[in-house]
């Protein structure tokens, strides 16, 4: 009896210790998130390049705080916040000045991603060149992929090939390029759905870089992204003729192709074929099929597939829940949508941007402004910051449904969180405010954008000019024009960027 009591006491003691550890971790995580948010807000609010950023960073960020995870989180938030790429670059350079900071590939890649997204390619090349000299181990296939994908998106085929050659001869000199690097180049074209260019590269270079199954799957994925079922099947048969054995990825791409085109029966046929040839379906396979079932509004099959995940001893994740949520939205089952979101919380599966975007989309179609407003309030209470497409969708819905105040609230929430909202969101908000005679608020939001080092579109500038002239507020117009000219002087729009 005493032994049982002793074991019981030890069990509860261990349980208490674990609870305390979890609380401590949660507290530490909240503190870190709060500090990251503070630093992101300082960077975004700083009037760079009018004033250098480094002194402000030095006075606000202790050197001891510059740990590898902390810097990665700050850069991740700067990316999500649509911060000016040059500010992120300045922050990374500041971190490198600290003897106690050891940069990671992740931090380097995030900074590079922010620069290339804003098309500051000269600075991006400069950045890669400096890292090559100081921290060559940070140069990875992922950093190469980030650079080449953006160049393929915004520049020509020839410039992308030249960039690959520059990578081989200069940035990654000393490394022998192989099929892995070749795959990165192919992926750059395929992710932009430039299949003619991808085919050209494959035909010209496959003798130098022998393709593997990953090469073929990248091309297959490219044909899938272009939405051509026939092209996918033709290339699949070419793979087989070349002697490649299809794997999980191959099947998943083909299944997704059929699902997106509404050919759910063909997708299920491939699913059955996978099992017949002992190519075990993955969680991604079943999640894709749940999406496919939703597209053809077969909610019974979607639920069956969802339950099949547990039966196969696979672990339910946010992707599977989001797939089922999307299916419920298409079946117009609002009660089940809400119940599923509650179930996710009970299982400690945090709602992500896809969850919110899907739910908002469903409520917009099936309910109205009051239900959307309620979910928006819950999202803000949880301190969740949505991604650009969700922000733009919400801003448009609020402004077009007579609740521009919610649009202003969303804008202020994002700015308070240290974010610099996307210019499309500003376009919508300024249009909504001006249409209701709230021109001063529209001017203030535009100034906030300019102060954070982001260009305002010509649409907004022309609209404000028209209203300010009518109001006789020429001094406010001059102030806006002065801020715009100053920003263009210090931070000219990247090459190929059009202010629309």
UniProtKB/TrEMBL annotation:
Gene3D superfamilies from the UniProt entry: Tetratricopeptide repeat domain
Record key words, sorted: Repeat
Top-rank taxon, per record: Eukaryota
Similarity comment text for this entry: Belongs to the PPR family. P subfamily.
Signal peptide: none
Annotated InterPro entries: PPR_rpt (IPR002885), TPR-like_helical_dom_sf (IPR011990)
Entry protein name: Pentatricopeptide repeat-containing protein
Keyword Ligase: no
Stretches forming PPR repeats: 178-208, 212-246, 247-281, 317-351, 352-386, 387-421
